[in-house]
């Protein structure tokens, strides 16, 4: 489930876009977002895995964008943090298979949630990180 992960990742990516030449630490990001730096590092791993950011260790280390903000769509960030999850979560408990609703609910919800995910993705494909950054 995406929950606040997209908000956190977009905050991180916008900070990086604001200062493209600087290596920004997870501590600075955490202070800006007002969350624990462990949560920031969790999102950074996803963004790095998606090849949206690069990192450098050490005293002068931190994180930077791999490419220009004008080449990154908000949809790229969404895909990086979403993976196989839906925006909404299907309950993990197995519904009653003898119930008319219970035996089909997860299939129906999965289909509905996929449509919602696709609609969000289409909307996010309209905006680059550069455009989003410039709105501040």
Automatic annotation (TrEMBL):
Gene Ontology MF term list: DNA-binding transcription factor activity
InterPro entries: Tscrpt_reg_Rrf2 (IPR000944), WH-like_DNA-bd_sf (IPR036388), WH_DNA-bd_sf (IPR036390)
Coiled-coil ranges (or none): none
GO cellular component, one term: cytosol
Protein name: Putative transcriptional regulator
Source organism of this protein record: Tenacibaculum jejuense
């Amino acid at each position: 489930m995406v929950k606040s992960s997209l908000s956190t990742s977009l905050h991180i990516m916008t900070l990086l876009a604001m200062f493209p030449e600087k290596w920004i630490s997870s501590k600075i990001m955490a202070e800006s977002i007002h969350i624990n730096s462990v949560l920031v590092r969790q999102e950074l791993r996803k963004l790095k895995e998606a090849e949206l950011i690069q990192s450098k260790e050490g005293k002068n280390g931190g994180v930077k964008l791999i490419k220009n903000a004008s080449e990154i769509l908000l949809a790229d960030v969404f895909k990086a943090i979403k993976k196989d999850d839906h925006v909404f979560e299907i309950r993990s408990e197995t519904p009653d298979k003898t119930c008319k609703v219970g035996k089909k609910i997860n299939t129906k919800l999965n289909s509905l949630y996929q449509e919602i995910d696709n609609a969000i993705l289409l909307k996010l494909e309209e905006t680059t990180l550069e455009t989003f950054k410039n709105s501040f």
